[in-house]
Amino acid sequence: MNPLTLPLVAIAIGPVDVPRAPREEVPTELRAMLEAAIASGNEGEVNTLVKYARAAKVPAADAMNRQAEAWKRDRRASAERRLREADFLALVKGRVEVSGFRTQGNTDNIGVSGRLDLRREGLRWRHKLIAQADYQESFGITSRERYLVAWEPNYKFHDRLYAYGAAQYESDPFLGYITRYSVSSGLGYSAIRKTGMRLDLELGPAYRQTDFTDDRYENNVAARGSLDFNWKMTPSITFRQNASAYVQDANSTVASTTAVSARVIGPLSTQFSYVVQYESLPPFGRQTTDTTSRASVVYEF
């Protein structure tokens, strides 16, 4: 055949469809499992199902992964849209913790403790506010009195890295200071961020003003570090570990709270916590370490 006639033959025949490899369809049983995991809203379960489908070399694993990725993209877009459009107060979540005791007879003691935690998680900004008060009397004499208010705004660069600012007021005469103001800024990183578990780490410079009970007054530059760990061990039991440290040439401070809470009904939980407060150079006659054990009722909203 004359090579010049080939284009004419091709035009006469028309376009030729090149057969494509058919996409692997997801079997009914696997599709039902994947859709059930998606309906639960638990991204970790969806990822696990796809992971084991691939590990077992299921032919439909790629199709399952495409469906899972499409769901996660839609979910993220929906979440971002909700955060952008929500009113300020609509995104505020919190917990109120209340504990107290009274003994009469051989001893006459009364003690109360309250704590409020508020958190607002926006698209770019996260705000955390804490207010806490502890008070105790023994035979009519005050034996413990501690107050704390702290505010921390975060600006999120992406899902894990963020910049933080922190401002804190404290008063604890029984640990040796009447008032203490601390301000800090630096970087934070979410080292663990998955369903049921989160670990945030922060580090930055700080400035502190302390008015001690022995009439000393200090202004110091310090280094601040903190960690915030939350682990939902079961649907009803949560473990929390919070710690912060201010390290400086003068009096350094380390504070730690370890808590386990168990959901009772609805938004109500019971909580057992252990608090440690350490001051490296307290006034003369004061202990360096103060510990508190609490049993509390917690209301979450």
Unreliable spans are 8-12, 18-23
Q: So, the CATH homologous superfamily of the largest domain?
A: monomeric porin ompg
User: And the CATH topology of the largest domain?
Assistant: Porin
CATH class of the largest domain: Mainly Beta
How confident overall, as mean pLDDT?
87
**Distinct helical segment count:** 4
Give the helix proportion (percent range).
10-25%
Strand content: over 45%
- The second-level CATH architecture of the largest domain is Beta Barrel
Strand order within the widest beta sheet: 1-2-3-4-5-6-7-8-9-10-11-12
Q: Explain this structure to me?
A:
- 20% of the residues lie in helices and 55% in strands.
- The protein has two domains: 23-85, no CATH class; 89-300, Porin (Beta Barrel).
- It has 301 residues and is of the alpha+beta class.
- A twelve-stranded antiparallel barrel has the order 1-2-3-4-5-6-7-8-9-10-11-12.
- The radius of gyration is 29 Å and the shape is elongated.
- It contains four helices and twelve strands, in the order ααααββββββββββββ.
- The protein has helices at residues 6-13, 28-40, 43-55, 61-85; strands at residues 92-103, 109-121, 125-138, 141-156, 161-172, 177-194, 197-212, 217-232, 237-247, 253-265, 268-279, 289-300.
- Residues 8-12 and 18-23 have low confidence and may be disordered.
- Helix 2 (28-40) runs antiparallel to helix 3 (43-55).
